[in-house]
Amino acid sequence: MMRVEVSVLVVSWNTRTETQHCLDSLRATTDVVRYEVIVVDNGSLDGSAEMLAARDDVLLIRNAENRGFAAAVNQANARARGELVLLLNSDVRMRPGALAVLVRFLRDRPEAAGVAPLYLNPDGTIQQHYMRLPTFTSALALATGLRKMPGFRRAMRRYLMAEEDFTAPRQVEQPSASCLLLRRGVLNAHQVLDERLPIYFNDVLMARELALRGHHLWMTPDAAVTHTLGASTRLLGPAARSRHHLGGLVRYLQLTQPRWRVAVFRGVSFCDRVARRLLRVRGHLALRELGAALRGDVGPLPDGDQRDWVIMFSGVNWSVGCQRQHALARELASDRRVLFVDPPRRRPRWRFMARPVAPSVWQATSPSVLPFGRQLPLANRVNRRVASGIIRRWLDQRPADRVLWIDEDLAVRAVGRLGESAVVYDVADLDWTFTRPWNRRHLQRAARAALRVADLVVASSPALPERLPGTRRSPVVVANGCDPALFTVQGSVADWVARLPAPRLGYVGAVDTRALDGELLAAVARRRPEWTFVVVGASTRAARTALAGFPNIYLHDQIRLEEVPSVLRGCDVCLLPYRVGELIDYVQPKKLYEYLALGKPVVATPLPALTGLEAGLIHLAADAETFTTAIDQALHDEPCPSRLLARRAVAVANSWPVRGETLRKLLADLAEDGLR
Fold this sequence. Notes:
The structure is a single chain. The longest helix has 20 residues, at 259-278. By secondary structure, this protein is of the alpha/beta class. Helix 5 (136-143) crosses helix 6 (150-159), helix 15 (518-527) runs parallel beside helix 16 (541-547) and helix 15 (518-527) packs across helix 19 (624-636). The strands form four sheets. Strands 1, 2, 3, 4, 5, 6, 8, 10 and 11 form a nine-stranded mixed sheet that branches. An eight-stranded mixed sheet has the order 14-15-13-12-16-17-18-19, sandwiched between helices. The protein has a six-stranded parallel sheet with strand order 22-21-20-23-24-25, sandwiched between helices. Helix content is 35%, strand content 18%.
């Protein structure tokens, strides 16, 4: 086996282009040094690992997640065979001959434990990337505004080696580890960098330990590299980067300073950050993150996912699982990340929780510090402000562009508090129609506010736009859809449905008095006692009363969405007996396309959203007599495969994936317009 002089250790994290240029520059730097390249990819999501796997000049170690810079360096070092190791950042480009100069420097100076090159900015100017080891005073200056005071200013300048001469080789207490050639013999055999410091200050601690053992680090201007600086760490985002840096500094002090000094540092830093907050200075950490950082808690290591966010304030809980909001969240998650925020609970709740519930979808339950936010404007205002602050801090740990999506009117109080670039108002329903008359004004005011601030207004039904007051932009109809892959023509039939007498007429949905016309259904059942009506869904007492006493009406409790197709396959005709001319006759029931996906004939009342559908697609009837006649006609229509396929084709054309494609195009146009 060929003797290796230098093992080059590179950590890759979502810097595909920079890593590629780095490795290409290394290959071109020398042909006289025998070296190997070991790259650890820390769960990159930008194709870095795939690019590295295709190269024949690297040994790739592929982590499934981001394990941190220190841990990745240690992984690479465990596989190294060289007498020397080069710590090399992916945003460094080696200039011709640089590696050979560094190797020769250590050969010529046996007293040197390691050597760094001269760093240049991409424009060719010198990048001062050498420091002394931090003292307690310089640490305070680094972390707080004390750096502006004379004594601390001097300590800061000394720490940064400001205006010192680097035109000749010299010892440096702490050269940057962006490109640092070290003798393996001076390093800890098991751990090059301390993994308690995952991102920042691990190289500082290593330099300090080498100095304590009498080893010296050098720099030489005879070897030059170009350093773009921070290619990976900029992906952290300002808040996460600030927490990692301050938390890393606290951990370094905990490992190197007496406890009383750490306590003083924490106290001064806390006062400094609070003062910044009061003075509205940009860049301060929220109090919760500040407290964690001052304890030395740097927070979770980010995953590097840079896709944009859709923050969806929903009017229904994620656990419901089968509404428009859930389908759209899954569709939007195909190229974005979605934070699905459950509506506030009626009772106070202090805990915030966010957890992944589907690919690229997180469910959030936010705190409600005051009860009855849906009824009391002040309580809603307070709850939304508190929740928005917590959600924004969570998002700041996962930086990317954000679109605020509202389908719950009262969530309009969150607008402007989440750092969003645009606001989408999805008018899934007119929320105020779902509450008692005394509370409608509160919700109507919120709806008008949402229409005023929204950059895009989406309506779930073609009957909705004419019911909305003036908006900044004309509403775009993105109607409800269906899942044709679930609602298939072929499949099982629920046993309990198959045992019921035929013909069977099916309805699945909310069984209440707001939408379902129970009196109409009862009148038809009275006219045709030989028909069996299968009514499935969560029901109210008033609705059950209207349908009670009919032996041919079979009421069944709500079932899971996955069970619905097997129930409807056992029905001969599917029904949409909605009330017309009342508060919520604007709806376009998503059940329509689910019925059609199963190939079933549909009889419905003439809701405004249904009257414009293709002629012959469904039967429309307004009263008991005509509704009965329409069902009778649907039952006696001669079965026709082409008619079944036509219904199925309409459902496929109105599927959730089709709706998702429309929404993705709308959001892309919104981003291109740069509205906010």
